[in-house]
Design goal:
The chain is of the alpha/beta class and about 375 residues long. It contains 16 helices and 13 strands.
Length: about 375
């Protein structure tokens, strides 16, 4: 017993993640990689599709294949049954659930028998449709199975409290590695456009999954007004998703679909301005932070508190006001000096407040405190 106390075992943590692409997967990879490097025993349970599992294995992180769909449905009970033996085999000290689907299946499987962190990455009751009231009820009931809610913003925490989700909250914004999204000047922009086959005209880039949440349909509504003021402007969509076919069919002039890309930084480097047209987010989205890190201003809707976050790094307009959105895009596409100034302010903010290192260290510290509190309570 004395020898065990002299050499305590490092914390063992199980991350449960669905989806396996885009911002949620980036965050899971970053946190798991950091915890693995500092000596924690880390396992990530996630589906085999997407790039997350392969990147984790390349980092030396253990991966348990947990096949799960993105949305709730008839497969839920099977997904819970599949997750249960993974939990039993890993025997974690902590379970960290990422996003709505993992939060649904994970809470049903664990039911707080193990200290549990849950990061919604946008609440399950945000999407429109007949299941929204049920999602609110579920989040209220299931809050008893969460020891700590990890929020990306104070706005996200307030949204949970407003619908009766009780519990302990900690707010930790996401971050990116500034070296992976280096600041780029006019020379780098010209080179990126040449390499990507893009014209040397004013360019707006929108990075995100093609789906209701990311609001590319709202961006399409705004785009013809942009062309009225900047006739040679080009809009580039980086990403794919369930709304891809409908968006391609409805695309206005001078829109280019780049599809899913691993080289997002090059597309942002080629841009003058980044368009973030989301209807909802957990807080400052990865697309926003990546654009700022690259030195690009952001035009966004004022959702998830972006009106207070945007500051001097772009513009936030009322949600759904596509006329104002178009105006803010056009004024930047027509003013390179303003883009440079706002982009530089964004880069400085990432370095000061929104770095990946700062984010993952804060998350790991919160998990460590929870583990110590639960151990103390058990004693």
């Amino acid at each position: 017993r004395s020898r065990m106390n002299d050499h305590p075992r490092p914390p063992r943590i199980l991350h449960v993640a669905q989806p396996t692409i885009a911002g949620v997967a980036v965050f899971v990879r970053n946190v798991a990689r950091h915890q693995h490097r500092i000596g924690w025993e880390v396992t990530v349970a996630c589906p085999s599709d997407g790039w997350l599992s392969s990147e984790l294995r390349a980092e030396g992180v253990d991966v348990a294949t947990w096949e799960a769909t993105r949305n709730p449905g008839p497969s839920l009970l099977a997904e819970v049954r599949h997750l249960t033996p993974i939990i039993r085999e890993v025997a974690p000290d902590l379970v960290y659930l990422h996003s709505a689907k993992a939060g649904l299946a994970g809470r049903l499987a664990v039911r707080r028998r193990i200290p549990t962190l849950f990061e919604p990455n946008a609440w399950s009751f945000h999407p429109s449709g007949p299941f929204r009231p049920l999602a609110r009820i579920w989040e209220r009931v299931a809050s008893r199975w969460v020891d700590l809610f990890v929020m990306v913003s104070e706005t996200e925490a307030a949204q949970g409290r407003e619908v009766g989700v009780r519990g302990h909250y900690v707010t930790i914004p996401h971050g990116v590695d500034p070296e992976a999204f280096p600041f780029s000047d006019a020379t780098a922009r010209a080179q990126a456009r040449h390499d990507l086959g893009l014209p040397d005209t004013p360019i707006a880039v929108c990075v995100g999954r093609l789906c209701e949440q990311k609001g590319q349909d709202l961006l399409f509504d705004a785009w013809p007004r942009v062309l009225d003021r900047v006739p040679d402007a080009q809009l580039v969509l980086v990403g794919d998703g369930p709304d891809g076919p409908a968006l391609r069919a409805a695309a206005p002039p001078q829109v280019f679909f780049a599809g899913d890309r691993a080289d997002v930084h090059r597309w942002l480097t080629a841009a003058d301005v980044a368009a973030v047209s989301s209807r909802w987010e957990a807080g400052i989205s990865f697309a926003t932070i990546e654009a700022w890190s690259t030195g690009r201003p952001v035009v966004t809707f004022d959702m998830s508190g972006m009106g207070t976050h945007i500051r001097d790094c772009g513009a936030a307009v009322p949600l759904g006001d596509t006329t104002r959105f178009a105006e803010e895009l056009a004024v930047r596409l027509d003013d390179p000096v303003r883009c440079e100034q706002e982009g530089l302010a964004g880069r400085r903010r990432v370095e000061r407040e929104l770095s990946e290192q700062r984010s993952v260290e804060a998350v790991t510290a919160a998990a460590q405190r929870l583990l110590e509190e639960r151990r103390s309570g058990a004693r």
